[in-house]
Amino acid sequence: MEYYSSHISNLIEQLSRLPGIGVKSAQRLAFHIMNLPKEEVNLLASSMTQAREKIQYCKSCFTLTDEEFCPICRNLRRDQNQIMVVENPRDLAAYEKTGKYEGVYHVLHGAISPMLGIGPDEIRLKELMQRLQSQEVQEVIIATNSSLEGETTAMYISKLVKPTGIKVTRIASGVPVGGDLEYIDEVTLLRALEGRVEL
Ligand code: ZN
Prior knowledge:
By secondary structure, the chain is α/β, with parallel strands linked by helices. It folds into two domains: 6-54, Helicase, Ruva Protein, domain 3 (Orthogonal Bundle); 74-198, Dna Topoisomerase Vi A Subunit, Chain: A, domain 2. It has helices at 6-16, 23-35, 38-54, 71-74, 89-98, 125-134, 148-161, 186-194, and strands at 56-57, 64-65, 79-86, 103-107, 139-142, 167-170, 197-198. A hairpin with a 6-residue loop joins strand 1 and strand 2 (64-65). It binds zinc ion.
């Protein structure tokens, strides 16, 4: 890419490192950014730095938030006895959009994948178990994706939690195999939640 100035090449290279952005998209974005008014570029850049600096993990459910505890965990109307375990904050957002789930969440930040070398210690499982020990919980709803990794993780969690006597359920199929929760419509998500089965 020597036919671009080194600054533009650098921008294209940085953008192409983002997930889902190939070189072509990166070029398109880079030239779009070059054509924006300077103030807009500053806004874009500072929103990225600010988000990265201010955002932290909720001390209870580990979703991303800008305070010690996220708004869901702080909400006294949410049922703290019911914990839905999801792989990432996007899945949490998908269930929140249905507006029907009244419990709280636990965000694992990944799923167990022997293929990718991601073991139980690499995701927020220990934190889930600590949480189950320190607070009264009636049900753990496992809402990991229906991919191989999601199913492996669900089985693993179920084995860990069941001996504690807490009810463990898994959201129903209806969520397509291999499907990421974040791309599934709200009706299907609700049906999967309502049709959850005890493990
Ligand atoms: Zn939280």
